[in-house]
Structures are given as C-alpha cells and as structure tokens.
Amino acid sequence: MKGYQKAVLENGIRVLTEEIPYLSSVAIGMWVTVGSRDENPRENGISHFLEHLLFKGTERRTAFDIAKEIDSVGGVLNAFTTRECTCFYAKVIHKDLPVAIDLLTDIFLHPSLDPEEVEKERKVILEEIRMVEDTPDDYIHDLFQSAYWGDHPLGFPILGSYELIQSLTRDQIYAYFKEKY
Length: 181
Hints:
This protein is α+β, with helices and mostly antiparallel strands.
C-alpha cells in the first residue's frame, strides 16, 4: 500500500510506519503478541493485570511522573489487552515523538511492578470485572467465548475471574512478564 513501510530490526522487532502528510500528530504502539489465549487456567487475567501495572512506575519514574510527562506534551498514553495481543500506545504531536518513545520503552523495559501498586490495581481490576458482569451487552461476549471455546484459553475472559485476580501474586506476575514479554 502506498505510504506504508515495514522494516525488521536486527532483534526481530517489526516496525510499521505510515506517513500522512496533512497530519502533524504521531501515533506509536508496541504490540506484544501475548494475550489471554497465552494464559493457563491458573493465571487467567494476568496479561490484562500486567497491562495495568506497566503504567504504575518504572525504575526511574513513578506513576505520577509518567502521567505528568505525557500530559505535559498534550499526549495520550494507554493500552489494551485482547485474546491475541497486548498493545501499549501513545499519541503526540510529531515534535514530541522522542517523549512518547522514551515513555513507552521505559514502561515496557523497566517496570517496577511495585507490590503496593499490585494491590491497588488488583482492586481496580476487580471493579472492572464487576462492571462487565453488571453490563449484559459486555458480559454476553465472555459467555459466548466460554460456550464456544470451553476450557481452551480462548474461552477465558480477558479480565480473568474475580477469584483468580484475587489469588495472583506479584511474584507470579513478574515471572509471567519475564517469560512472555
């Protein structure tokens, strides 16, 4: 396609770019080919849990520092988890691309996975699970996946179950991060 370019770095990372001449903004994302389908039954929801935790601090930044830095350039830093992948992305004005790259690589390569933040995010995720279960047009998707795929990981809810999220430890999350990411 016109405007798209693909490069593969020496380390195997694929870089896709598209130039849109009339825009002065940049969107950049890191897609990790790990999603809920890669989880075993005892760790269901761990990919989504990690998605949350990577924004909660690094070796050199607190969660507040991360938010302040992206906000200071009017940018957006966010993520999402699917059954197939987890994506971490940023949107900024083109001149602030170095800020976005620095933030994304820092949260991805140097997460602190602070035990206090694990507990805070556990509460947030448990609330997310409750919200999905209280919203029939969201919950039906999890029920369908479970009915169709059964005990296969594709049948697991992306957020995990209430019981599993309560039982995950910081050490389990760290080990999963080191193994899969």
